[in-house]
Automatic annotation (TrEMBL):
It comes from the Bacteria. Residues 175-257 form the Signal transduction histidine kinase HWE region domain. It comes from Methylobacterium soli. It catalyses: ATP + protein L-histidine = ADP + protein N-phospho-L-histidine. InterPro entries: HATPase_C_sf, Sig_transdc_His_kinase_HWE. It is an enzyme of class 2 (transferase). Keywords: ATP-binding, Kinase, Nucleotide-binding, Phosphoprotein, Transferase. This is histidine kinase.
């Protein structure tokens, strides 16, 4: 079918294998500056229709008894915008209302203009121009249909994008509600346990402020990542940032790049804060010589991969196991284990506190 910008879209195909009809018609159309191509037989005509044309000029004797199966199939397969005009040169009284053969051709070809011979030269040119003008209107209809289809596609794409955006917004709102509830629950737990275990108001205030700031720093890391997760190295770096003033060389950090989900990021950040606070008060960061080793590794080949995380104090005062676990230890061992869906263990070795974590990376 004729494609847009096809140079063959307005040519006239001529099938008149007998007599001088083809040469006469071609000459008349050429004088009227109308492009025409003479076809030798029906297969040539069929190929010409496939390549593109504005109309086809046929003589009745060329098609009256011929096998028009190919032409008929081409006519039937025309797209909705197309209705190829055919000009059929007939003898006297050759119209379909008086000529059964012409009626058959009209049924097969569809859009047929019957032109009885003999005809005046201007009549042929006029009929050809009329057929081509109708064909141009069909091309215009095709352009409008294509524009409508393009517009429909863009509209569908825009509606789909809007729908995805609305669904994403609902998910974000649900996620935000979930995070707010979890954060408030965490803050409530921290506040209750801090106030319950503090010996004075000043101590309670300082501990609560420190823990809330640690939670805030962890939230900052996740917010920069749109709450899609965080790198463990950044979580650790931000968590120990308030304690680097005691000497950055007192922390040794080693481990591969690991991407953690928001839940794991918050849990590890809070655990490091509690461990660091305890180390400043009683452990390796309470004197001038102690330090902390923070390292981790990932076990691949299992589903899901597992994270082995370790906090190890060294060089500090001799450690004695406490008679009673404080809120910090319980926060780490219970809450961290629950949030990580793994195991957490704190050992109070004389050389320094060691906290180990084994958890799946989700």
């Amino acid at each position: 079918m004729t494609a847009p910008n096809n140079p063959f879209s307005e040519r006239v195909l001529i099938l008149a294998p007998q007599g001088r009809d083809a040469s006469i018609a071609s000459s008349l159309l050429r004088e009227a500056q109308i492009l025409s191509v003479t076809c030798g037989d029906l297969p040539d005509l069929h190929q010409g229709l496939i390549e593109g044309a504005g109309t086809a000029l046929l003589t009745e004797e060329a098609v009256r008894t011929a096998d028009l199966t190919q032409i008929s199939h081409w006519v039937e397969r025309q797209p909705p915008w197309s209705d190829m005009p055919f000009i059929l040169l007939t003898g006297r009284s050759g119209g379909p209302e008086r000529n059964p053969a012409a009626a058959r051709l009209s049924e097969i070809l569809g859009n047929v203009i019957f032109l009885e011979r003999p005809f005046h030269s201007t009549t042929l040119v006029s009929v050809a121009r009329t057929a081509l003008r109708g064909r141009r209107r069909q091309y215009e209809a095709r352009s409008r249909l294509e524009a409508l289809r393009d517009g429909e596609s863009r509209l569908k794409a825009a509606l789909h994008a809007e729908q995805r955006g609305a669904e994403h917004q609902r998910l974000l709102i649900d996620e935000l509600n979930h995070r707010v509830k979890n954060t408030l629950a965490t803050v409530q737990s921290i506040a209750i346990q801090t106030l319950r275990n503090a010996d004075s108001n000043d101590e309670a205030y300082a501990s609560l402020e420190t823990r809330l700031l640690a939670l805030s720093r962890a939230h900052d890391v996740l917010t920069r990542e749109n709450w899609e997760g965080a790198d463990l190295i950044e979580v650790v770096t931000q968590a120990i940032a308030p304690y680097r003033g005691r000497g950055s060389e007192r922390f040794r950090i080693d481990g591969p790049g690991v991407r953690l989900c928001p839940r794991m990021s918050l849990a590890i950040a809070m655990a490091i804060q509690e461990l660091a606070t305890n180390a400043v008060k009683y452990g390796a960061l309470s004197n001038a010589d102690g330090g902390v080793v923070i390292d981790w590794s990932v076990t691949n080949g299992v589903t899901p991969p597992r994270l082995a995380f370790r906090w190890c104090e060294e060089g500090g005062p001799t450690v004695k196991a406490p008679k009673r676990r404080g809120f910090g230890s319980r926060l780490i061992e219970r809450n961290l284990a629950r949030d990580l869906d793994g195991s957490v263990k704190i050992s109070f070795a004389p050389s320094g506190v060691v906290c180990t974590v084994d958890a799946p990376i989700s």
